[in-house]
């Protein structure tokens, strides 16, 4: 059962590039899936894509998962043809040594982060490593590099997505695995009672910017598209999907695991950006129990998700969040369990199919 889903689509989504503000390629994939499985699809001025399934009720639910992955932007080209880069999202510079990248210049170019071999190190470097200290080597002379690359070009990690035992590993599972789960739920859900807006959002990794723009858009008439390029959804309820920490590995105490791989989808209670609405996370838990869906509860000490982008940007909105436990976040070996992915799809689908607009989420 570990891979009871469309692995090829998941692989396509994770291997496709799309850093904050430059989600074009993955947005095309998301839009294609939403056009096939929703009633109408719109894109706003920031690049958020919203696919809407019309229900019989005026009550509406927004479901959000972000498209962007962490990456870099070229900020300087040295006289020797090496690239200096600026981070787009939160990186631990230690994991970048000797990794392969793709520079999206005049064409897609393979490069590597340079690393000094241990043979020539007299001692360990002092102080913390910074992303700004890393350089990208393109294996070309400076004149050729100047012809192919410009300041402002985007850099992403080069990594394939593969099955590893009962798990999936690769880059950009944050948050493409949840984008995938949302798209699969849009495919599987049939004739919902309420209107559902499936939102593929942008720029989450640099401050939840896309979801906040969608949440703010409710000032105008729901469902309209304004001259400013807003897509106004004005939901009565919002549920966001994102990965969460699974530090269930040797060397980490159990109280810091947050979640564990293989124990099911995670129902979020809090992170540093949001405390989910108690009645929403209780209903998520009730649906999981009634449907026999493996689940666990998530209390995340730090980190934020698109959930916060909807909670209070246009007045107060009840919010919930579903997470996929993932090891090694913000690296090129992010790892999630296949059954946990399936459980996430099942819980989201069951929750949406059972939403009739009559549940009282008020406090």
TrEMBL record:
Keywords: Aminopeptidase, Glycosidase, Hydrolase, Metal-binding, Protease. Pfam families: Peptidase_M42. The active site is at 204 (proton acceptor). Gene3D superfamilies: Peptidase M42, domain 2, Zn peptidases. Binds 2 divalent metal cations per subunit. One of its GO terms (biological process) is proteolysis. InterPro entries: Peptidase_M42, Peptidase_M42_aminopept, Peptidase_M42_dom2. Its cofactor is a divalent metal cation. Belongs to the peptidase M42 family. PANTHER family: AMINOPEPTIDASE, AMINOPEPTIDASE YPDE-RELATED. This is Endoglucanase. It comes from Halolamina salifodinae.
């Amino acid at each position: 059962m570990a891979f009871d889903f469309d692995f090829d689509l998941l692989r396509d989504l994770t291997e496709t590039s799309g850093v904050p503000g430059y989600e074009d390629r993955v947005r095309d994939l998301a839009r294609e899936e939403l056009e096939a499985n929703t009633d109408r699809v719109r894109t706003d001025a920031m690049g958020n894509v919203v696919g809407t399934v019309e229900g019989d009720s005026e009550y509406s639910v927004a479901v959000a998962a972000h498209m962007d992955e962490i990456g870099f932007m070229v900020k300087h080209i040295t006289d020797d043809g090496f690239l200096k880069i600026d981070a787009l999202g939160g990186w631990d510079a230690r994991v970048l040594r000797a990794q392969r990248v793709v520079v999206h210049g005049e064409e897609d170019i393979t490069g590597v982060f340079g690393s000094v071999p241990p043979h020539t190190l007299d001692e360990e470097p002092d102080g913390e490593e910074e992303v700004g200290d890393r350089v990208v080597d393109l294996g070309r002379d400076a004149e050729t590099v100047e012809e192919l690359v410009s300041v402002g070009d985007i850099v992403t990690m080069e990594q394939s997505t593969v099955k590893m035992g009962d798990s999936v590993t690769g880059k950009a599972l944050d948050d493409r695995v949840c984008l995938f789960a949302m798209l699969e739920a849009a495919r599987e859900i049939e004739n919902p009672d309420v209107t559902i807006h499936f939102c593929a959002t942008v720029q989450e990794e640099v401050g939840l910017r896309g979801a906040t723009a969608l949440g703010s858009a409710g000032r105008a008439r729901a469902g309209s598209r304004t001259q400013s390029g807003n897509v106004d959804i004005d939901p009565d309820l919002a549920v966001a999907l994102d990965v969460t920490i699974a530090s269930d590995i040797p060397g980490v105490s159990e109280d810091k695991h947050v979640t564990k791989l293989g124990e099911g989808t995670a129902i979020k209670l809090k992170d540093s950006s949001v405390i989910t609405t108690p009645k929403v996370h209780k209903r998520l838990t009730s649906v999981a129990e009634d449907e026999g869906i493996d689940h666990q509860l998530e209390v995340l000490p730090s980190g934020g998700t698109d959930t916060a982008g909807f909670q209070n940007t246009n007045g107060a909105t009840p919010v919930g969040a579903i997470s996929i436990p993932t090891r090694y976040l913000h690296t090129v070996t992010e790892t999630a369990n296949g059954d946990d992915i399936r459980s996430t799809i099942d819980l989201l689908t069951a929750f949406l199919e059972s939403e009739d607009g009559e549940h009282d989420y008020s406090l």
